[in-house]
Design brief:
- The complex is a heterodimer of chains A (440) and B (263).
- Chain A is mainly beta.
- In chain A, 13% of the residues lie in helices and 38% in strands.
- Chain B is mainly alpha-helical and 263 residues long.
- Helices cover 86% and strands 0% of the residues of chain B.
- Chain B starts with a helix and ends with a helix.
- Classes of the chains: A mainly beta (440), B mainly alpha (263).
Amino acid sequence: MLPMPGMLGGESMRLRMTMAREIASVRLFAAVTCLLTALVLMVPSPAKGRTLWVHPDSTLATISQGIGAAQSHDTLVISVGTYSADSLIIGIPLTLSGQPGAIVRAGGKRGIFVVTAPHVTIRNLHLTGVQASFTAEHAAILLEGVSHVTIEDNIIDNCFFGIYAANSFACTISRNQVIGRQDRLTTAGNGIHLWYCRDIAVIGNSVSSHRDGIYMEFVRSSVVDRNQCRDNLRYGLHYMFSDSSQYAGNFFCRNAAGVAVMYTSNVLMQDNVFDQSWGGASYGLLLKDIRDSRVVGNKFTSNSIGVHIEGSDRIVLAHNLFKDNGWAMRLMANCLDNSIRENDFIDNSFAVATNSRQNHSSFDGNYWSDYRGFDLDRDGYGDTPFRPVSLFSLLVESHPPTLVLLRSLLVNVLDLAERTIPTLTPETLVDTRPSMGPNL
Amino acid sequence: MTIVRQISGFVIRDILRSRWSIANTMFFAIATAGLFYLQADSARVAVSISSLSLVFIPLISLIYTAMYYYNSRDFIELILTQPIGRRSVFLGLLLGILISLVAGFITGIGIPYVILGSSDWTDISAVIAVIVIAIALSSIFAALALVAATRCDDRGKGLAVILGMWLVAAVLYDGLVLAAATALAEYPMETPLLIASLANPVDLSRVLFLVHSDMAALMGYTGAVFIRFFDQPIGLVVATVSLLAWFAAPVWYGLRRFNLKDF
C-alpha cells in the first residue's frame, strides 16, 4: 500500500525502515544475479567434440556444409574468406569460431544465423550486410528459444538488427562490436535486442549508430555491464518491463536519449556515465513508472535533462554527479517516496524542475553549487535549507516561452527574492541539510 | 571632420588622465581575472563576461557619458565660442567618450584573457562576439546618455533620468515581457517574443548570445523559432538594423537638441 501524502511526516520512520528493507532486498537480488551469472559462465560447454575447418578451397567450402558435416559439440573453425549465409539454422550444440578475416555476409534478404539449439558459441566472426525490412526483424544473429548460448568477440556492422534474443535464458553476449548504418529512425534496428529472456549477461559490448543500442523487453534477472553505447538514433539502452535486472559501468554518449527505463521494478543502475544527450527533447536517463530501484554512483554530464522522473516510487538516487546539464533533474509531482541524497549538482542551468507545488520525495545531504548558505557549526552541512527549484524554473515549466529570458538580470533578481522569502516554489521540495562541499 | 577628430582627441586625452577611465578598466580587468580564478575554462569565462557586460556596460556607459558631459560644461561652452559648428562639437564629444569607453573595456578584459585564457579559436571567437556586442551597447547607451544630459541641465535630474533608462532597459522591460508571456499564455507567443527581444538592445544582445550558445537547445519550440530566425542572413540583418537604429535615433535627436540648445 502506498502511503498517502498527508501521512508522510508521521510515518517517516516506518518509511525509512521499509526503504532499508527494499535496499537490502535489492542488494540480495544483485548478489543472486551475480552468482547466477557466474554459474552460467562456469557451465563448461562440453569440449569433447571434433574440430572441423571451413575454408573456401576445401571440401567444407561454406558454413552451411560445415554445419551439415558437424555433430553435436563439434567446433567449426571458419578460415579467412568471405562466406554468405541466409538465415542459416544452427540446430545442434556447436562452436563457430572465426579466424581473423573471416567475414560472413547475409546471403539473402533475411538474417545470417538463426540459433535454435542450446550450448552454441559464436565467436570472432565479422558479420555484415543484413538489410532493413519493414515486416520482419532480421538480425545478424537470432537466438530463438535457447539457453547457454555465448556470442562473443564478434564484429557486426551494417546490419538491421545486430543480435536478437527471443525466449532465451542463461545466455552471454559479450565483447561484441555492433555498428549500425546511422540510418533513418524508421529503417534502423536495435544493436542488441532481448525479448522475453531471463538471466542474460550483456557485457563489454560496444554498440553505435543503431536505433536503440541495447533493447530489453520482458527480460528478468539480467545484467548489462560495461557496455559502450554511442550515437544511437533513439536510446542507448531501452528497458521495458524488465524487473530485477541491473546495468552498471556502462558508457552512454551522444545518443538521442541516454537510457529509458520504463514500467519496471527492482532495477539497479550503478556507475554509468550519461554524456552529451543534448537536444530539444533529449535526456540522460528517463525513469517512467519505476518502483523500488536504485540509481547510484552515476555521472550525468552535458545532457539537456540529466534525469527525468515520472510516476516512479521508492527510488533511491544517491552519490550521483550532475554537471553542466540544462536541467539536472525533472521530478514530476506524480512521484512518491523517492530519496535523493548525497548527490552533487554542479553548474546546471536548472538544478531541479517540477510541475507542481506538491512534492512527495525527500532531498538530503546533496551538494548544490548554487547554494549560498553558511555553516556556523562546522558540521559540513549548511545551516539554512536549500530550495533547488527556482522561481524561474517553475515559470518555465508552466510557460515554456518565458525561457527566452534566461540569464536576464530580472530573472536573477526574481530568483533571489524567491529564495529569500519563498512563496511560490514547492514548500516541501527542500534540502534541509545541503552539503557545503562536493560529496564525491 | 578634422574638427570632430580634434575634439575627440581632446576628450580622449582628458579622459585618459582622469580616474574614471582607470576605474572602468580596472573593474573589467578584476572581474575577468576573478572569473578566471573561479573557473579555469575560457568558454565559461566568456559566458560570464557576456552576462556581466549585459548588466554593466549600459550602466557604466550611461553614467560615464553623463558625468563627463556635466564635468566639462565649461570646456564645451568655451569651445562653442569658437567658430566651430555645434554638430562637430557634439559628434567629437560622443566619439571621444565612446573610444575611451570601448578601449577601457577591451583592455580590461583583454589583458587577463591574454594572460590566463586559452588560445583555442572557438573561445577567442566567443570573446570577440562579447567585444562586438559590448561596442554596440556602449555606443547606444552613450548616445542615450548624451541626449539625457543635453536635455537636463540639472545634474541630479539628468542622473535620475539615466538610472531610469537603465532600469527600464535592463530589468523592467523583461518584467513586462514576462508579464505579457504569462498573461497571454493561451496564444502563440513566439513571434511577439521575437519582436519584443528585437526592440530592446539589451535583450537583443542577450538573445544573440543565447542563440549562438549551446543553451539554445534547452529552449524547446520557442528556441527553435529564435534560432531559425537568427541563423538566417535576414535575422542578422534585422538585428544589426535594430542596434544601428538604437544608436542613430538618439544621435539624431541629441544633435537637434544640441543645435537648438541655449547655453
